[in-house]
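lol so apparently i was supposed to do this last week
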Amino acid sequence: MKSVGGFRSMYNEKQRRTDAGNSHRRRGKLVPLVLAVVLAISVVAAPLLTPDHERFTEEAAQRMTQSAGSVLAPVYAPLAEQLVADYNLDDMETGIGIDLGSGPGTLIFELCARTNLHWINADINPHFFPIFFAEAEKRGFGHRVSAIFADAQALPFRDNYADIIVSRGSYHFWDDKALGFSEIMRVLKPGGVAYIGRGMARDMPVETAQAIREQQGERMVYDREAEAASLEAMFAELGIDTYRIEIPVPPDDPSLNYGIWIELRAP
Ligand SMILES: C[S@@+](CC[C@H](N)C(=O)[O-])C[C@H]1O[C@@H](n2cnc3c(N)ncnc32)[C@H](O)[C@@H]1O
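anyway here it is w/ S-adenosylmethionine bound
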């Protein structure tokens, strides 16, 4: 019995080693497979965190800076005034404001001039930042602003961080708008507000708006009602009902495109 037992135990030991070898080999194949699957899932599921070099170039930053200083220059002051009036920003002694997709930060400078908040330029194209900081210093706002590489779809801010988030001319570039708007809701403080959209302030003088649209040509022709409908469907799916969509219609030229805006409130 003993020898049988001894034989058995030798057999078992050999078998164990063979099993162990097989399982090691199986594991050897399995590990890279699992890693490949995890990597594939994370590449597919991960929001865009690294700039796509075709889109977020230094040239793109220079082009946008140029148009913010020329064709679009009249847009920012009236928009800042509207934001201050709508949300009583001039009553706030302190606070954090984020301009999402701020580019050269022209709206931020107008907001710095009218509020006491600290304003953050959160943009996916970091080539804007040297231009932004140089201009901030020149205007005396160097201590009032920050900049951070940010994808709207995966904001680099903790929950309940910002008092207000604004964004002009950016959201239609976000690949996953639902993710972007969910992120905005996450980052807003309770009671905070966001004003996100494209176009111009509702009381922009009509002649100025006409001149801008003429220079922009066909590029800015889009169906705002269809856009509103698709945003409504998106918010319904997200279960967000604390929003308002604004399509400004100037009485003197109702067909003129003043853009589309979304006001979001964090409960
Ligand atoms: C047409 S420019 C508008 C710039 C600025 N808001 C203005 O009105 O002058 C669009 C901006 O959105 C930024 N942007 C595009 N996709 C983005 C994303 N996924 N997350 C953050 N910023 C983005 C671009 O880098 C660019 O600065």
